[in-house]
Write a structure and sequence with these properties.
This protein is α+β, with helices and mostly antiparallel strands. It has 4 domains: about 5-20 and about 40-125, SH3 Domains (SH3 type barrels), CATH 2.30.30.40; about 130-230, 2-Layer Sandwich (SHC Adaptor Protein); about 245-325, 2-Layer Sandwich (Phosphorylase Kinase, domain 1), CATH 3.30.200; about 335-515, Transferase(Phosphotransferase) domain 1 (Transferase(Phosphotransferase), domain 1, Orthogonal Bundle), CATH 1.10.510. About 25% of the residues lie in helices and about 15% in strands. It is built from 14 helices and 18 strands. The protein has a 5-stranded antiparallel beta sheet, with no helix packed on it. Strands 10-11-12-14-13 form a 5-stranded antiparallel beta sheet. Strand 13 and strand 14 form a beta hairpin. The longest helix has 20 residues, at about 350-365. The two termini are about 45 Å apart.
């Protein structure tokens, strides 16, 4: 075995010495060297002969990857695996979100096949730590850490937006109202982790965490305790490697449950693919839209991949009715979540977090020059941990010169008048700024917990009033600062409205307004 691979194996063994096989909870002892924590996923190499495995991978592919989650293959050519299994790359080329690998086995020949790229990571990378959440947004940090399942001292690490060698340590502080503290963590030129302005440096993320879990540490105002749980497993690109590129699904492998929701273009069913994998199935109202219009939604969705957009798995168009198959979001539409679901109990800051998540997804669409044209609470879906994703791209279009003019075939589609910007309603000119207008209306839906906007006004009458300068007044439950954001979204001139990137930042700052004041006195700089 060469020196490089032995070094990787040694580091891997050291980390295993600090991992718990039973729980995500952390037990801290007085001696920092004896801290017992679950910062690594539960990987185990004890069943393998180390030299046998690692000698086999020397040569072209000189790196080992580890499974972060369990995965059950749904198609021939893909590999099933368990968390902790190890692989070598056959090719480092990512094809439709999948990698071709060889699964390392000591008691049988190696197995080759495709695995989802987001399900594996290099064994010595931060991604293998359970406390590391990657490049998630501030709104997701708030959503996850402020969950009621976390207690005082719960923490996570994430990639900073400020540089490749910068991270952020976010810690929950429980008081009368739970708050978060954020600290910059840097990687020195020697590859050591340290808090900004701290002289304490650590060779691994594991030893960094152990130190700040110890009772002897005095640099942070609160000792780290348990790692914050992550979201559900990431969605794969397609139900399999083969189907990720083909898109047309065989309807015979779909099974249908009950009706889960209704959209402009049809009913949405809770279903399963091959009686195993849970999906949502949208059926076409064949009398209202032809095959080309139906497939347009699939065409739009397959070009777009982002954690805040619902994932498309494929379509069924060989016979009628046609179906679109997407990921399943357990809590249904944001509209229902706010009116009849758990959203009824959320406080103001948790509600604003929902808006920040939508702004994040729309910021991605903005960067791709797409307009949604039907942004509303009914077209945002909610999953576990209040994770929001934008859906229903039936009216979405790619813009040219930042504008979209409807085709003749669009004229039969019913416009969401009360969410539509005046320039879109009267001139039929759609831009990302008309989506910004709709987002302002969506914010009123969120803060009112699902109330219908302008409920006492007729659509045509309303548009005439909006054209004359009327704007929705501030609701009693709406904070002044949030209403300022709304009115900025409703400025008469589209170019004067903020971008979604700006809206995301403003909402994330608003979520933590109290924290910003608190953190100004911290010993370590507050990361943005």
């Amino acid at each position: 075995m060469n020196a490089c691979m032995r070094n990787i194996l040694d580091r891997f063994r050291r980390c295993l010495c600090n991992s718990s096989d039973d729980s995500d909870d952390v037990t801290t002892h007085h001696n920092a060297a004896n801290v017992h924590e679950n910062t690594f996923a539960d990987f185990s190499v004890s069943e393998f002969d180390d030299d046998e495995i690692f000698d086999n991978i020397e040569g072209k592919n000189d790196e080992v990857y580890v499974a972060l989650y369990d995965f059950s293959a749904l198609q021939n050519g893909d590999l099933s695996f368990s968390q902790g299994d190890k692989f070598k790359l056959i090719s480092d080329q990512v094809v439709d979100g999948w990698l071709k690998v060889s699964k390392l086995c000591s008691d049988r020949p190696e197995l080759e096949g495709y695995v989802p790229k987001t399900y594996i990571a290099k064994i010595d990378s931060p991604d293998t730590y359970s406390c590391y959440h990657g490049a998630i947004s501030r709104s997701d940090v708030n959503r996850l850490l402020l969950s009621s399942s976390n207690l005082n001292g719960a923490f996570l690490m994430r990639k900073s937006r400020k540089g490749n060698d910068q991270y952020v340590l976010s810690v929950r502080e429980t008081s009368s109202n739970p708050q978060l503290k954020h600290y910059r963590v840097e990687l020195s030129s020697e590859g050591e982790y340290h808090l900004t302005e701290s002289n304490n440096k650590f060779r691994t993320l594991s030893t960094f965490v152990q130190h700040y879990q110890s009772e002897e540490q005095s640099e942070l105002p609160i000792r780290l305790t348990s790692t914050c749980s992550k979201d559900e497993k990431p969605q794969t690109y397609g139900l399999s490697r083969d189907l990720a590129s083909k898109w047309e699904l065989d309807e015979k492998f779909l099974s249908f449950g009950g009706i889960f929701g209704r959209g402009q273009f049809g009913k949405v069913y809770r279903g399963k693919w091959k009686d195993t994998f849970e999906v949502a199935v949208k059926a076409l109202k064949t009398e209202e839209m032809d095959r080309a219009d139906f497939l347009n939604e699939a065409e739009v969705m397959k070009q777009l991949h982002h954690p805040k957009l619902v994932m498309l798995y494929g379509v069924c168009t060989k016979s009628q009715p046609f179906y679109i198959v997407t990921e399943f979001m357990r809590h249904g539409s944001l509209k229902d979540f706010l009116t009849i679901g758990e959203g009824k109990q959320l406080n103001t800051f948790a509600l604003i977090n929902l808006g920040a998540q939508v702004a994040e997804g729309m910021s991605y669409l903005e960067s791709r020059k797409f307009v949604h044209r039907d942004l509303a609470a009914r077209n945002v879906l909610v999953g576990e941990n209040r994770n929001c994703k934008i859906a229903d791209f039936g009216l979405a279009r790619l813009t040219q010169d930042n504008k979209y003019l409807p085709r003749n075939s669009d004229t039969s589609i019913k416009l969401p008048v009360k969410w539509t910007a005046p320039e879109a309603y009267f001139k039929e000119i759609y831009t990302i700024k008309s989506d910004v207008w709709s987002f302002g209306i969506l914010l009123t839906e969120i803060i009112s917990k699902g109330e219908r906007p302008f409920r006492d006004k007729d659509g045509e009458e309303l548009q005439q009033e909006l054209r004359a300068g009327y704007r929705m007044p501030k609701a009693e439950e709406c904070p002044n600062e949030l209403h300022v954001i709304m009115t900025d979204c409703w400025k008469r001139e589209p170019e004067e409205r903020p971008s979604f990137e700006e809206l995301q930042g403003r909402l994330e700052e608003f979520e933590e307004m109290d924290d910003l004041e608190e953190d100004s006195s911290n010993s370590y700089p507050y990361d943005t």
